[in-house]
């Protein structure tokens, strides 16, 4: 695989309060670049690094979907949750809140997003703990198990971008 120019990841993101679609577009690009880096790391045998990049790709995709579906999601929430979503969650996307945010994405019409996010969080743990035959610190006993899930989550990410997110961005006039 050739070299990937990830310099776009170093540029400031558009502010979601100024342009939700611009923010979502940037996050989708981030997700795709992180996914490519994950594949490159996996190809080189750096499974833990690949797991981290796959997690970052998934997290960026959650941010993009939350931005695109913000109003639809917010209307179903109470005042406190709505305020948190609008002011903090979309822009910051705290890892500790990914499960509840994934449920909101799933409720907004993205099937299986919650269990896929659990898989991404398992990869996040693997990044730090590596393979664990006892499965005390990681859900993966071997590099091969983790590699399978990395490829699986990246495949699902590509499907979601192609089938759901890209058409939504095209509808908004941001992708051609």
TrEMBL record:
It comes from Pyrodictium abyssi. InterPro entries: PaREP1. It comes from the Archaea. This is PaREP1 family protein.
């Amino acid at each position: 695989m050739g070299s990937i120019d990830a310099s776009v990841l170093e540029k400031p993101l558009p502010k979601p309060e100024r342009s939700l679609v611009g923010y979502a577009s940037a996050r989708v690009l981030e997700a795709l670049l992180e996914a490519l880096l994950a594949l490159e790391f996996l190809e080189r045998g750096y499974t833990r690094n690949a797991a981290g990049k796959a997690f970052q790709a998934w997290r960026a995709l959650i941010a993009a979907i939350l931005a695109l579906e913000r109003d639809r999601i917010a209307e179903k929430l109470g005042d406190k949750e709505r305020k948190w979503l609008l002011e903090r969650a979309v822009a910051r996307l705290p890892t500790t809140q990914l499960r509840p945010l994934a449920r909101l994405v799933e409720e907004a019409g993205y099937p299986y997003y919650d269990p896929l996010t659990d898989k991404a969080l398992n990869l996040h743990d693997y990044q730090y703990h590596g393979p664990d035959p006892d499965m005390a610190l990681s859900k993966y006993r071997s590099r091969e198990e983790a590699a399978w899930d990395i490829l699986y989550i990246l495949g699902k990410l590509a499907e979601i971008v192609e089938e759901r997110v890209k058409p939504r961005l095209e509808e908004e006039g941001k992708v051609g």
